Structure formats: structure tokens, C-alpha cells
Amino acid sequence: MKITKISTYQVDLPLVEGRYSWAAGKYVDSFDSTIVKIETDSEFVGWGENCPLGPFYLPAFGKGCRAAIEEIAPHLIGLDPTNFGVINKVMDEALLGHPYAKSALDMACWDLLGKKANLPIVDLMGGRHGEDIKLYRAISQESPEEMAAKVSGYRDEGYTKFQLKVGGAPEDDILRIKAVSAVLKDGETLVADANTGWKAHEAMRVVNGVRDIDVYIEQPCLSYEESIRVRKNTTLPFILDENINDMQTLLRAENDGAMDCINLKISKVGGLTKARQIRDLCVNLGLPMTIEDSWGGDIVTAAISHLAHSTPERFRFSSTDFNSYTPITTANGAPQRVNGVMKASEKPGLGIEPIEEVLGKALYICE
Predict the structure, then answer these.
(1) From CA 170, how far away is CA 147, in angstroms rounded?
(2) What 8-state DSSP symbol labels residue 42?
(3) pLDDT digits (tens, 9 = 90+) for 49-81
(4) pTM of the predicted protein model
(5) 134-182 per-position pLDDT tens digit
(6) From the CB of residue 30, how many other CB atoms can be counted at a distance below 10 Å?
(7) Distance separating alpha carbons of residues 211 and 203, to the nearest angstrom
(8) 263, 219 Cβ separation under 8 angstroms
(9) CA distance 233 to 93
(10) Which positions ≥6 away from 146 have C-beta within 8 Å?
(11) CA separation (Å) from 86 to 82, 117, 180, 216, 324?
(12) Closest C-alpha among 216, 229, 249 to residue 317
């Protein structure tokens, strides 16, 4: 099988709730998603997706994703998409950095491998563990009262894990954490995710202010050094996200005892191939993971489900059903949340079929 054609599409993904807000006053009303189609000289077609969390969360943005794919695509024509070692080597040599753009292409190649093997990706990544994948619900940053009030509605949808978007003024974030903690029930999990929004001294105030609450602290500060300083001054369980972007940083953090869990985002590390390597290393190190991506629709959600469902259950801290945050359906067959859980498809590849009328006309074609 050889790659004969690569096309990109752009889709806007608005939010059911209208706006998503997090640290430092950042927000997004609609997400800019790039969808990739890889055609081959066989009957099989592969699909991938990348959707950054706006242009100011990680070094990634929608237009940049499409420009990077245009730079990489000509180098992939004629290659075997199921030879991931060669595909990723060629992508890395064609363009330094920009892992988020490479992720969409790598994802489409995994879709092709699954279709060629007539197996779902979950089977190719280690086999299905357990019946389903437990999901968390992110609670957009608002007042303490508004954030606490949202818990009951999300609980009715089956969620038992709640991730608060904090990273604002320490006094406000302490109130947010306390307000939401007060309405939680036994067996529910609370995470306070600052998304790098605090300075170290601010994070110290927060962890001291909520030291008697059962809450995980996620990525308090921008730098690794600041975050580990906070880690050393609290007994609260700790999650790192933005600072963990490859195997080298993971090994450094593990050696330093910098966290109890990590957030593994597929596009942040460059795709499913590299995400699986990091996932397997975490399992060997005994580190639980939130397995997700920066954002996305049906195709990204399908990819998350396959990586998560092929991970041993005791190492799955949580995952995300991004396609339930938007009213736009871009593909049939994507996993759907049912009572706070989802499952990876049993169909070959990602198990999805994009709705090409929704995707519209290709913005770029390379053949």
C-alpha cells in the first residue's frame, strides 16, 4: 500500500455551552479543527484530525497545522502509510517541530493500518482492557457558585470525575475548589487544573488554602522548575501536563518525583505512534494517565478511545469525550458517551466514517 493523495479540510467546532474558559482569562467560543484524508493505491482511505485549544494554549494553532501539513505532505507521497517508523522519520526530517500537525497525519496512517489488517486500532495497540473508559468533565472557569452548580447536571450525564479550570487569582481559585468539593459525593474525583496559570507563590497559596480537601493539583505553573517547587511543598496528589511532551521530559520528571499522574495528549507528543510509546513507558513506571488530546471532534475522540481502551485499567486515570462538547457531528461511528463512559469501536481502524458534506471542499490537495 502506497500513499497517493493527501487532502486537508477545515471545520469549526462551536461549543454546546457557548464558551470554554480557563487560566489567565483565556477562552474559546469555537474551535478550529483540521481534518486529514490520506488516500492510497488500495481501496483504503485513512482519516486524522488535529484541533488545538485556540492559538494560546500550546505552541499550536489551526492555520499553522494546515500550513505544516502542506510542508510535510509531498514527502509522504509514495510511502507505505503502515510503516510508522519511516513515516515519522520522514515527517521529522521534513519539518522540525510542529508535532500537532504530524499527529493528524500519523492518526490517518493508524486508521489505514487498522483497515488493512481488518482490526480496530485498540487491538493493534495492545488489546481491549475492561468494558469501557471512564470520562471526566471539564468545568469552564466561572464564579465558584456557577462552577459548583454545574456539577449536578454533569453528574446526571454519568460523570464522576470533575476537572475545574482554575489558574486565576489564588483567593478566587481557593473558593472555586472549596465550592465544588462541597457538592461532591463519595467516589467522585476532583482535579484543579491551573493550565500553567499560577506563579509559584500563587500556587503555594492555593495548595495551602485547600490542603484539607481531597483534590488533585494539575500543572500549576508554566515552567517545570516552578511546578516542582510547588510539588515539594504540598502533600496533595500532583498531575503534570504541559511540561510532559516527550519521553525525555517524562523520564526527567519521574526521576525527580515530580508528579503522581500525567496528562497524555496525543497531538502534543506528535501522534498515536509516539503517544503509545509514552503510554507504555508510563505503564512500566507505574504512572496513571489522563489519556486525551488538546481538543477535537469525532475523529480525535475515536483516537482517544482506542489509545485509552488499550491501556490497562489501573493506569487510566481518566479520558475525554470531546465530541459531546460540540453540536457538530463530523463522522459517523465515533464513540458516544453513555452514563459517563465510552468504548472504542470494534470496527477496523478508527471505526469512523467522516461526513464529507460536513467537511466541505478540501482546502489543500497533494498528489
Answers:
(1) 16
(2) S
(3) 999 999 989 999 999 999 999 999 999 999 999
(4) 0.97
(5) 999 999 999 999 999 999 999 999 999 999 999 999 999 999 999 999 9
(6) 15
(7) 12
(8) yes
(9) 42
(10) none
(11) 9, 19, 48, 39, 35
(12) 216
Q: How deeply is 225 buried, as exposed, middle or buried, from its count of CB atoms within 10 A (0-12, 13-18, 19+)?
A: exposed
Distance CA 112, CA 109 (A): 5
Distance of CA 309 to the CA centre of its chain: 14
Dihedral, CA of residue 325, residue 326, residue 330 and residue 332, to nearest 10: 50
In the chain the beta strands, taken as DSSP E runs, fall at 3-14, 20-21, 27-28, 30-40, 45-50, 133-134, 136-139, 161-165, 189-193, 216-218, 238-240, 261-265, 289-292, 316-319, 331-332, 341-342, 353-354, 364-366
Amino acid at 292: E
Task: Report how far apart, in Å, the C-alpha atoms of 58 and of each of 51, 222, 241, 343 are.
Answer: 11, 11, 11, 28
Whether residue 24 is predicted with pLDDT greater than 90 in this model: the reply is no
- Whether the CB-CB separation of 328 and 300 falls below 8 Å is answered with no
Phi-psi category of residue 83: left, alpha or beta, with phi > 0 → left and psi -120 to 50 → alpha: beta
Here the cell at position 339 is: 452514563
Residues assigned a catalytic role: 165, 265
